[in-house]
Amino acid sequence: MKDLQQWRDGDSFGDLLKRRGVTRREFLTFCGKMAALIGVGGVFGGSKTAFAQELAGRLEAARRPSVVYLQLQECTGCVESLLRSASTPVEELVLEQISLDYNELLMAPSGEAAEQALASAQTKPHLLLVNGSVPLKDGGVYCTIGGRSARDVLERAAANATAVVAIGACAEYGCVQAASPNPTGAVGVADVIRDRPVVNISGCPPIAETISATLTYFLAYGHTPPLDGLGRPLFAYGQRIHDKCPRRASFDAGQFAERFDDQNARLGHCLYKLGCKGPATFAPCATIEWNDGVSFPIKAGHPCLGCTERHFYDRMTPFYRRLPGITVPGLGVEATANTIGVAAVAASVAAVAVHSAATVIAKHRARRAEPESLPLAVLGDREEPGVKQKEKEKDS
Amino acid sequence: MATERIVIDPITRIEGHLRIELEAADGRISNAWACATQFRGIEKILEGRDPRDAWAFAQRICGVCTGVHAIASIRAVEDAIKCRIPESAELIRNLVSGMATLQDHVMHFYHLHALDWVDVMSALSADPAATSRLAATISPWPNNSATWFKEVQQRVATSAKGGLGIFASGYWGHPAYRLPPEANLMAVAHYLEALKWQREIIQLHTIFAGKNPHPNYLVGGMATSINLDNQLTINKVRLDQLGELIREARRFVDEVYYPDVMAIAGFYPEYASIGVSSPTMMAVGESAFSCSGTPAGKPVAAGLLMDGDYRTPRPFNPRMVAEFVSSAWYLYPEGDRQGLHPWQGRTDPNYTGPKPPYRQLSDQEKYTWCKAPRYDGRPVQVGPNARIMLAYAQGHPETVQLANRDLGQLKAGVEALNSTLGRTYCRALESVILAKRMEEWFAALNERVRSGDVSTFNADFWEPESWPKQAQGMGYLEAARGTLSHWVEIENGRISRYQCVVPSTWNSSGRDPNGLMGPYEQALAGDKKHPLVDPKRPVEVLRTIHSFDPCLSCAVHMLLPDGSGLEVKVR
């Protein structure tokens, strides 16, 4: 990982804050919030105050990095999500923390001037953020920008990137357009950029704060946050939704909504029987919640779809079918989900070093699921048909 | 002067991927091609799946129009299985889709469109105190202080010093920019305020549907339960929050967005006759007046204004819709000249363009991933100006009153609404009416809750065993960008066919077999008068294209069905 100091000469973040009249106290309050957020996964240990101060020190010294934010084959939902970031508001992020030198949704120029902005930004060290998948079928004709295929655009932008962050499920593994039968041959960023690690911020879309906190982490530490086995920052994806769900107590007590809007639903009981994928989903929804902590799907009465898990469209559907093979309430789901939890945490502990994370990511690439081969395979059956065969082919 | 060929790709500040190719001579556009350069195939992916899941896939057609796709999808399924939903659920859907439209219009104006009219660099030379005085003449908005304007100026100046980011390489100083520095500074400040506003206002979506973007919906109603006395439901605290959010939304629209649009419009009156596009307008009942799904009856009925007759509303007949692929990369076995009604249509991608990287698409017969829908053979504009013009023609009192006042101020007739400025203005006008309407819907919801009617879900048709073996359904909605429809065919509890016909497909389509241009193309090249002073800095083109609020991911996903029969129900 190249050092962030290469990024951009000029003022540090601390200088900017001073000039903006932000007091030390206000800044520390901000860092405290970020620390609470980053500390969600409990991966750092130590006191929050100490962490906030450390974060403050690092942030103050950080330089304003050049950021290229590509949108490939996608729906724009992930940028829309980032626009909703409350902990680091996007206007502050864009005007003060980073220099967003290319992003099609927000940038002023079009056409030639936009292409020049990209060409100029990508010759220098920069942070590369990517939304969207890369359609590989038929020479990439299913998504072109400036006459170039998405793959071409991505590879050029990645060549000098200090770090690559795949934001959202499309960039991670192709998401909805990669669902069976994947008509355009869509794959994720890490399937194309193989010579360096890719941080995956999971979700369709991810919560705004997981995006902005990852950026803030970069700024503060100059390297990627610790990742789990799927390349996801542990601070956001270290725990299952089920672990912190406000309806967890009713799950443990065996109180379930049997159908939508029945008496139990009106009492806020557990949605497991309506198909909730919270027990199998690693995501910070229950902790950070959405849109400045207002709510999240389970709180609003709808089961979790499991959108932060890989291949969730094929593997988490039908959405309203219960997670299979489970005795409720009690040990069944706990036993199965915990097995997965332990596996993922074990993988992430081994993968704290970025390079080993890259190895794990590469391995997971090889394990790409057959689309819709196993609905709900995420629970119970960890082996995907065809995978063993594929891995053998790969090994041989 | 010789005719020049111009390519603008990417068109930025839109959703999705759009390329515009032009011919221009002597500072005027003489020909235009709109090229959608992305295809994802979501309808194909929906085949074989549980219809109750469809909304979650269909919603991912677009990250901007998430909720409306979900609702259109759910209505199509509910229509197919004959499931009526509780009145409170309908009111909640009205509120969330109304909020989506408001948020969309405001963000479109400030973040996707305003930089076409507002010179950010000029704002740096404004006098903050004079800006505050200017702002006070158009609005009582309390944030319009010299202090705030000064802060904004400093922040932008600081950003400029560090490289400027998103504002870099803008067409600043282009002679087409005409606002005085103070008006520019006011608009830049409101650009930042609107960013803050939108992330608060969408919390209405979060409360009712769990998150934004991509909120969660439910076939048969809404998943949110109402129980005034529980922490995890729509309770008294939530109702108070919702009321406040709606009040704030209305205030921002009334005191910031609408006055800004009117103030900026005053500097660009010629754009009321630039960007005039296809003279047939279609709407199925405005979101401001009805969100009731299938073409609305009251108070503004579904209809069309045809061939430039903007006084006479004509009835809408879905049978008159046909889609063509003569300019799009799809294959019809019936041949390229054949138009197919959605129930007979198909979407088999068949790319025949040049291998990327390529320089030119317009020299090919096919040049886009967007099909060309036509109504009775006519290219059709959908969207805010179609809705407002139709409401005006039907004599909708609020629309007539506000439009007459504002058109009088601009010294223009109703036909001016079919223009670059008209489309931009109609979004603001519609927002004023819609924000007020949301307060009425919310009051109606509160009234129901008070009377004890808290049902939000109809469980009778939840199990696929209760469905007919075969069923067809359609869901209509006026989304922010115009008429949206989803069509579903169900066999044995699974989706056998799925199709969407969406606003940006109507507007961004290419030529049909008769050589008629789609509305974007028509707006740029229809009268050969559209200005383009400097092809390297095509700010005039961006004004007109952005006035449609392009949503290209929505536009290019068409499919398929070949079914029979079409029944439109008016609720």
TrEMBL record, chain A:
Binding site for [4Fe-4S] cluster 1: 75, 78, 170, 204
Residue span of region Disordered: 370-396
Residues reported to bind [3Fe-4S] cluster: 285, 304, 307
Protein location: Periplasm
Binding residues annotated for [4Fe-4S] cluster 2, in chain numbering: 242, 245, 270, 276
The Cytochrome-c3 hydrogenase C-terminal domain, residue ranges: 237-320
A GO biological process held by the record: anaerobic respiration
Name the record gives this protein: Uptake [NiFe] hydrogenase, small subunit HyaA
Organism this protein belongs to: Citrifermentans bremense
Lineage: Bacteria, Pseudomonadati, Thermodesulfobacteriota, Desulfuromonadia, Geobacterales
TrEMBL record, chain B:
Protein's name according to its UniProt entry: [Ni/Fe] hydrogenase, group 1, large subunit
UniProt similarity note: Belongs to the [NiFe]/[NiFeSe] hydrogenase large subunit family.
Binding, Fe cation: 65, 554
Listed PANTHER family: HYDROGENASE-2 LARGE CHAIN, UPTAKE HYDROGENASE LARGE SUBUNIT
Residues at which Mg(2+) binds: 43, 62, 557
Keyword Cytoplasm: no
Pfam hit, one: NiFeSe_Hases
Cell location: Periplasm
SUPFAM superfamilies per the UniProt record, alphabetical: HydB/Nqo4-like
Necessary cofactors: Ni(2+); Fe cation
